[in-house]
């Protein structure tokens, strides 16, 4: 997940690190670890003991005898040493290879020092579908953290660059959080259904995400109903119906071509009458360029007054998903986003950019084709995905 973005970020870290070393006249020093040093002490001690043994008096014997008791026997002591000596030799070889660079002197980076690296990073991130304004923001943040700051020869340049880039990315991802389940609980306390309206262009995963969220809500003990508000696309009503059967969630529907707002309104009345906690309202996929359809979704919002308008974007669409989110946000003021298909090795740019571009949080991420494959979005989870070698998550639960 986000493989290419991860590689590009790691590349930036190593180039910035290299820049610091080259500026600090890095010197290479073989850092033998304490074990090797202990090894030397041990070998000196044993050879001393062996020497003493050849020309020693009775008195030494008792001393040796003492130390043998500690290690069990002289043979064992020598044998241990032989073994250790062998391991010590190979250890020495391998550790001698682990040359650690250290800075020869303190470093203060200038804009010029990192100009080229940041330019390369800009190209790389744009290629990964990261929005231009987001790339600019990352560059600005890195400069603020690295330029003009003294990096002492005792510091670890890898750590400094890693932390700086991680902080930059975290700033991008962090928008005002919305806890969907908290909103649902607040409405439940008032004995009203929480109404969640899903919008987006065709094929992004609205119907699927609604069904996944319905499945997860049920798992959490909430009651839900799904509104077949996509009365436009052939098969959309049947598709949601199928999901309803699979998840055991009631679907409120009218015939194809019916008024979307009317279907959703009926679902809300149904939920109110039966004390159902959540209405998950599907809508038809629409191109933001289609004025009539954009006017229709504005009417749906006016009539149904949803608690959350959730934009569903396809992470594989990269920058397009970001511009769509911005256009839907302008039209109906979305509250948050779901980014789908992140399991399909999306470049990662949309995940990084969408929240910053619309200044609204990512609520969930679609991470697969199972009903449980809807991951509540968390900045730390994303940072871990981008910066650590964690195992890919195994998905569970039933397939669609
Ligand atoms: N791999 C993967 N596929 C997904 C995910 N979410 C949705 N899909 C697939 O994307 C395709 C489109 O999903 P739908 O839910 O039908 O999309 P939609 O937005 O309702 O489409 P329209 O009704 O045309 O607007 C389906 O094949 C889904 O299985 C996801 O997180 N991962």
UniProtKB/TrEMBL annotation:
Region spans: Disordered: 43-69
Superkingdom, natural source: Archaea
Gene Ontology molecular function terms on file: GTP binding; GTPase activity; signal recognition particle binding
Binding site residues for GTP: 200-207, 282-286, 340-343
Bias (Basic and acidic residues): 45-69
Topology of the protein relative to the lipid bilayer: Peripheral membrane protein
EC number(s) stated in the UniProt entry for this protein: 3.6.5.4
Protein keywords: Cell membrane, Cytoplasm, GTP-binding, Hydrolase, Membrane, Nucleotide-binding, Receptor
Assigned GO CC terms: cytoplasm; plasma membrane
Spans through the membrane: none
Protein name: Signal recognition particle receptor FtsY
Function field: Involved in targeting and insertion of nascent membrane proteins into the cytoplasmic membrane. Acts as a receptor for the complex formed by the signal recognition particle (SRP) and the ribosome-nascent chain (RNC).
Pfam family membership, one: SRP54
Subunit composition and interactions: Part of the signal recognition particle protein translocation system, which is composed of SRP and FtsY.
């Amino acid at each position: 997940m986000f493989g290419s973005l991860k590689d590009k970020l790691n590349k930036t870290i190593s180039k910035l690190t290299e820049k610091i070393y080259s500026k600090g006249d890095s010197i290479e020093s073989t850092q033998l670890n304490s074990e090797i040093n202990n090894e030397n002490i041990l070998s000196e001690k044993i050879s001393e003991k062996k020497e003493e043994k050849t020309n020693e008096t009775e008195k030494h014997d008792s001393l040796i005898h003492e130390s043998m008791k500690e290690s069990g026997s002289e043979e064992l002591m020598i044998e241990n040493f032989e073994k250790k000596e062998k391991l010590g030799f190979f250890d020495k070889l391998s550790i001698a290879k682990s040359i650690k660079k250290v800075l020869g002197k303190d470093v203060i980076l200038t804009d010029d020092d990192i100009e080229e690296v940041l330019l390369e990073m800009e190209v790389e991130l744009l290629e990964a579908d990261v929005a231009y304004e987001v790339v600019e923001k990352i560059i600005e943040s890195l400069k603020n953290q690295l330029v003009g700051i003294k990096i002492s020869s005792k510091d670890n340049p890898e750590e400094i660059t890693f932390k700086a880039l991680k902080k930059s990315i975290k700033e991008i991802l962090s928008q005002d959080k919305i806890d969907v389940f908290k909103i649902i609980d607040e409405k439940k306390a008032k004995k009203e259904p929480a109404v969640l309206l899903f919008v987006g262009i065709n094929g992004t995963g609205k119907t699927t995400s609604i069904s996944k969220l319905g499945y997860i809500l049920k798992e959490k003990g909430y009651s839900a109903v799904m509104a077949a508000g996509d009365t436009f696309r052939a098969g959309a009503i049947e598709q949601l119906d199928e999901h309803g059967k699979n998840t055991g969630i009631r679907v409120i529907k009218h015939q194809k071509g019916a008024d979307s707002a009317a279907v959703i309104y009926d679902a809300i009345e149904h939920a109110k009458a039966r004390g159902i906690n959540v209405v998950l309202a599907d809508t038809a996929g629409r191109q933001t360029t289609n004025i009539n359809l954009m006017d229709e979704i504005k009417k749906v919002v006016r009539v149904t007054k949803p608690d959350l308008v959730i934009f569903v974007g396809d992470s594989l669409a990269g920058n397009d998903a970001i511009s769509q989110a911005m256009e839907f946000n302008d039209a109906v003021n979305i509250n948050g986003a779901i980014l789908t298909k992140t399991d399909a090795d999306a470049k990662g740019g949309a995940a990084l950019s969408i929240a910053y571009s619309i200044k609204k949080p990512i609520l969930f991420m679609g991470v697969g084709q199972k009903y449980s494959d809807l991951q509540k979005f968390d900045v730390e989870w994303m940072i871990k995905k981008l910066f650590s070698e964690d195992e890919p998550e195994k998905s569970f639960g039933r397939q669609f």
